Amino acid sequence: MAEFDVDLFVIGGGSGGVRAARIAAGYGARVMVAEEYRMGGTCVIRGCVPKKLFVLGSHIRHEIEDAAGFGWTIPQATFDWPTLIANKDKEIARLEAAYTANVEKSGARIVKTRAVFEDAHTLRLATGEKVTAKHVLIATGGAPNHGRMIEGIEHVISSNEAFHLPELPRRIVIQGGGYIALEFACIFAGFGSDVTVIYRGDNILRGFDDDVRAHVRSEMEKEGITILTGCTIEKVDRYGDEYVSHLSSGSSVASEKVMFAIGRHPNVANLGLEKASVAINPSNGGIAVNAYSQTNVPHIYAIGDVTHRLNLTPVAIREGHAFADTVFGKRDVKVDHADIPTAVFSQPEVGTVGLTETQARAQFSRVDIYKTTFRPLKATLSGRDTRVLMKLVVDGVSDRVVGCHIVGDYAAEIIQAVAIAVKMKATKADFDATLALHPTAAEELVTMRTPTARHVRQAAE
Ligand code: NDP
């Protein structure tokens, strides 16, 4: 009889856990996956996928507005939120079923229940059943974090609820200046809501290149979104169907919905981690892991948002795959977390890879900046008041392009391809040697000849 019931027990059926389960099963491992909610996890069920569907839907407003300059007469367009929600839900259900089918096809078994550690090798299911496992993978993801308990916090929604609102709010206040706050601000504005963003710092998208931050803010403001910086929401009062957010600045904003998008916390609570002696990383609250996603308990691993490293779906998938290759495929695979492209699906989008100008200047003695902003061709006829930003950050000594930052339509699509060049350590000369594809916005990336700024750090005397 086998020593353990299964070779691998995966807690969490999100993108990372599912990838690990399928690959491990492919190597012949006996795998069980526990999921207490819906297969697919944050990305599929209440993250990337429904969010992108919302982005696509709300962007249609721009297409309708832009059409007149191209000769189209479009009768008064109307938007029906419940139709979007119903169609989105149908697609998410289809994807969930596909995730489930793919896991089962791989030979892994799904149990639709919460699983918690009884000891380092034993998981207890909500049914009371106990399962022993040779290896355990914790892939429980993260959840919205509302921060400190302010008065009226019970009135505040997160992105989880935003995906299921019965009706489109006419006015919404969103606190936060990161990915989720800006993506939802633009989504709601696109559908016609009056949107106010409340951000505690001096400008949104902290950590992104400063030119990107300024550009996105000005583009969002041009679309009618109010962005109030240097303040926080201190209290939310309810008056019937209306809420009033009281700000630290002393002013207040009324709306039908108040949403917080002020970060997410790793799902580490009530998993019985202490019974398995799994350690938490004190610096970020996630499960502490090494470069192989291995915890302090050698047969227990953790991947994705629960480790609070880089909270991006493709990162979790890559970590899950690397784990399965290493442990069950007997191949030594580590995930390289450098130069990971990322996008904020604001409108316009942000696409970025590599270092910001500030980071590059801290790292290299000579940094050349190539930057351009321009009116996209479409805007010449549509009349839309918008500009595209493209920026290359170059190590002036090696000539390597160490960062690329784009704000504009299709920035995410463009940056995915640029990321290959950056990952291959392409130089500015390689970019220059590449012929332009005309007429596109992306051709600017290979036609910027003269640096717009050159920063040379003087050697310390
Ligand atoms: P982010 O970390 O991106 O942004 C959090 C924002 O909230 C920041 O502006 C932060 O300000 C602010 N904030 C944090 N704490 C407080 C507080 N106590 N009071 C007021 N403001 C506060 O988190 P999100 O929730 O937007 O998203 C979580 C993560 O999910 C992202 O970091 C990303 O990894 C991932 N994600 C990725 C997406 C994509 O790839 N397109 C889309 C959505 C999410 P400050 O900057 O000052 O700290």
Short description:
With 461 residues, this protein is α/β, with parallel strands linked by helices. Helix content is 31%, strand content 24%. Strands 1, 2, 3, 4, 5, 6 and 16 form a seven-stranded mixed β-sheet that branches.
Strand content of the residues, in percent? 15-25%
Bound molecules: NADPH dihydro-nicotinamide-adenine-dinucleotide phosphate
What is the fold named in CATH at topology level of the largest domain? Answer: FAD/NAD(P)-binding domain
Overall spatial form: globular
CATH hierarchy, class of the largest domain: Alpha Beta
Main beta sheet strand tally, sense and closure: 7 strands, mixed
Average pLDDT metric: 97
Distance between the termini: 72 Å
Helix content: 25-40%
Which radius of gyration do the C-alpha atoms yield? 24 Å
Provide the structure class: alpha/beta
Overview of this structure, please?
The N and C termini lie far apart (72 Å). Helix 1 (15-26) links the parallel strand 1 (6-11) and strand 2 (31-34). The chain has three domains: 6-144 and 265-327, FAD/NAD(P)-binding domain (3-Layer(bba) Sandwich), CATH 3.50.50; 153-262, FAD/NAD(P)-binding domain, CATH 3.50.50.60; 342-453, FAD/NAD-linked reductase, C-terminal dimerisation domain (Enolase-like, domain 1). The longest helix is centred in the first third of the chain and has 26 residues, at 81-106. The chain has helices spanning 15-26, 41-46, 48-67, 81-106, 159-162, 179-191, 210-222, 273-276, 313-327, 357-363, 377-382, 411-423, 428-433, and strands at residues 6-11, 31-34, 109-111, 115-119, 122-125, 130-138, 142-144, 171-175, 194-199, 226-229, 233-239, 242-247, 252-255, 257-260, 264-266, 300-302, 342-344, 350-354, 366-374, 388-395, 401-407, 453-456. The strands form five sheets. Strands 1, 2, 3, 4, 5, 6 and 16 form a seven-stranded mixed sheet that branches. Helix content is 31%, strand content 24%. NADPH dihydro-nicotinamide-adenine-dinucleotide phosphate is lined by residues 147, 175-181, 183, 199-201, 206, 232, 261-264, 311-312, 342-345.
